[in-house]
Amino acid sequence: MEARLDVARVRGLFPALADGYVHVDGPGGALLPEDVARAVGHALRMPVAERGGVFAASARAEGLVSGARSAVADLVGGVAGGVVLGASMTAVTYSMARAIAKAWRPGDEIVVSRLDHDANIRPWVQLAEERGVAVRWAEVDIETGELPAWQYDDLVNRRTRLVALTAASSAIGTCPEVPEISHRAHAVGAMVYVDASHAAPHMYLDRTALGADFVALSASKWCGPHVGAVVADPQLLAHLHPDKLRSMPDKVPERFEAGAAPYELYAGVSAAVDHLAGLSGETTGSRRDRLRASMGAVARYEGELFSWLDQALRAMRHVQVLGRPERTTPTLAFRVEGMRPRQVAAELNRQGICVWDGDAYARELFDAFGITEDGGAVRLGLMHYNTPDEVGQVIDAVAALRPRPVPR
Ligand SMILES: Cc1ncc(COP(=O)(O)O)c(C=O)c1O
């Protein structure tokens, strides 16, 4: 039988929900369950020193790092030795990009997509400019919000070094056909760098099935602390040579991790993956098995709630939802006739509903929609802790929105 999500039980795991707000701001950063906060607090209270010493407090740091690596590896179907940890997805992508780009030569090409968060665009574009590499753009179909896979037939060729794309847009929800696009990229010998930051809390991820050479993640999007990660094959990482200090280990993945690490936050990363794995209530099997069951239950639960929300908003004459992707996470962006997105967000806030407004860091996408100068859009997304009652409140609040005169 398919596992189901018991949302009442799940909500009990989140002390932050006691603030009484309707949190549909998850795509910008999810709430943290008690277990994650407790794990971080516990690590802060223990003697934890730097790694590499002969004493217990140093060994404890080592344990926290290897625990976080194993957890992240389980989350995406990688191996612990291929998990690079860092301050944020943006930070790890910047440094990984610098290491990858060392092999680029003038005349090479890369492909980025206009669907992506800027963290999976700008590092590549900036390095391409530095190294005389051409940037080719995968475009979004503005009607549907899709990133058509067929365009990659023309975008990639023997000069392509890298294809960077998202597994799911945190702005409008679209899930591109990553395996198909990876297949095209690999056929010409290009590497594939997939941003799974937003996909991770909504679906079961499998790095091999995605065809991703690199999977980038942001733990704060999946109920973890502010930590970023990139997962790759350790053998691939061994071919990359980031800038590093002399005393830093040369082994993989440590060679990518400059400076002292936030060990206490790494305790929270492990706890966050355990939280996701425990969502279905299943207690047997490996953590990866439990993740499969839990993420299936999450996807079914969120999918049902989201289609209600999505259909209700689309039926409102004063609301314009951006795109209409077929495969999507429970995330959408919308505009309200006669109101700036900031006004809408402020009005919803008055009703106790938290949403983001602006460009969701997807500046290329919002430029393509032609709405950046106009305040972007309101972005809302469901998480496994949202309820039908909350979705009803959101629908009623958006339905009641009426333009107000903008104060001068
Ligand atoms: C899809 C996506 N990618 C990347 C990022 C950047 O993550 P971080 O804040 O860890 O750098 C975000 C953050 O909102 C995101 O939504």
Automatic annotation (TrEMBL):
InterPro entries: Aminotrans_V_dom (IPR000192), Cys_dSase-rel (IPR011340), PyrdxlP-dep_Trfase (IPR015424), PyrdxlP-dep_Trfase_major (IPR015421), PyrdxlP-dep_Trfase_small (IPR015422). Residues 24-393 form the Aminotransferase class V domain. It comes from the Bacteria. NCBIfam families: am_tr_V_VC1184. This is Cysteine desulfurase family protein, VC1184 subfamily.
